[in-house]
Design a protein that fits this description.
By secondary structure, the protein is an alpha/beta fold. Helices cover about 35% and strands about 25% of the residues. It is built from 9 helices and 13 strands. Strands 4-3-5-2-6-1-7-8 form an 8-stranded mixed beta sheet, sandwiched between helices. Helix 3 packs parallel to helix 5.
Length: about 300
């Protein structure tokens, strides 16, 4: 069912448009509710600059590597995330100033990737983002990066909205993949589009043998353009799911693969596996003007609150 809706949302075929049309009244209701919620919200100012990296599309759009690239530019920075897919609940420090304080099942895959990638940052997860921001401030953070925060309409922040290069289905949930009406991008401080404002750069660790792609990300077919021709099979799990080492070993044997090919997000959940792993490493090349606009916001915010 998950794969069906990924096709409906990201790669609709002719017959899919009948279902999209049938679901569109529900999308109108959902989108209207989200719009009223946004317009009625009262924003809370936490007294320090908060930069949100979010999107309108359900699923992956480059938020995690964008957050990592952004957080690496600042000192005393804390990343606040919900921690999708984690087995813990409530407020949890994943790392503090680069020291890892939790395991991947407690943190979730994306927060752990951020924590491991940023030796000078702190990462906190909480369903209540306000609690995490308060803790980060108490711990001495001077800048907050809010992961997946566009729909956190009750927080005063600078909204960066990441936009895919193309969206074939531009309807809100459930007929389409959008969390709000497409025109809601006008509420963002800066809309950043893939292919125009940032580009993905994927590097695969050199490996001579055959590879089995094993991944638990949303819309995994987006990896296809970056796969080496030595991939002999594919094994997909739902976004944020955890892997079973014995199952992967069996899948490798059935596919005749010599190693697993995984994303960095998948790799953090395989740290203790004894299977050979080859990583697809993703970095973003971001236009300098985008980064300068964020720097300007942070500087102006601090100047205003120092007066």
């Amino acid at each position: 069912m998950k794969r069906f809706f990924e096709r409906l949302y990201y790669h609709p075929k002719g017959v899919d448009y009948f279902l999209i049309a049938a679901l569109s009244p529900f999308s109108l209701l959902y989108g209207s509710y989200m719009l009223v919620r946004r317009l009625a919200a009262k924003k809370r100012d936490f007294g320090l600059p908060i930069v949100s990296v979010g999107n309108l599309v359900v699923g992956g759009s480059g938020k995690t590597p964008f957050v990592i690239a952004l957080a690496s530019r600042y000192e005393n920075v804390a990343i606040v995330s919900r921690g999708y897919g984690r087995e813990s609940k409530g407020l949890l420090e994943v790392s503090r100033n680069g020291t890892i304080l939790a395991d991947v099942k407690q943190s979730g895959d994306e927060p752990m990737l951020m924590a491991q990638s940023l030796p000078n940052a702190s990462v906190i997860v909480s369903e209540k983002r306000e609690d995490a921001i308060t803790l980060a401030k108490e711990n001495g953070a001077s800048v907050i990066i809010l992961d997946d925060g566009f729909n956190r309409v009750d927080i005063e922040k600078y909204d960066l909205l990441l936009k895919p290069a193309s969206i074939p289905n531009t309807l809100p949930f459930p007929a389409g993949p959008l969390r709000e009406f497409s025109f809601s991008e006008c509420f963002a401080d800066k809309v950043v589009q893939e292919g125009r404002d940032f580009r993905r750069i994927v590097q695969v660790t050199p490996f001579e043998g055959k590879l089995l792609l094993a991944t638990a990300i949303a819309n995994p077919v987006r990896l296809e353009p970056y796969l080496p021709n030595t991939v002999v099979g594919r094994f997909y799990l739902e976004d944020h799911a955890y892997f079973d080492e014995h199952q992967l070993a069996k899948n490798m044997e059935e596919a005749g693969a010599d190693a697993l090919l995984v994303t960095q997000k998948d790799a953090v959940k395989m740290d203790r596996f004894k299977l050979p792993v080859v990583q697809m490493k993703l970095k973003l090349e971001i236009e300098e003007t985008i980064l300068e606009s964020i720097d300007s916001y942070i500087k102006k915010y601090k100047e205003l609150h120092e007066e």
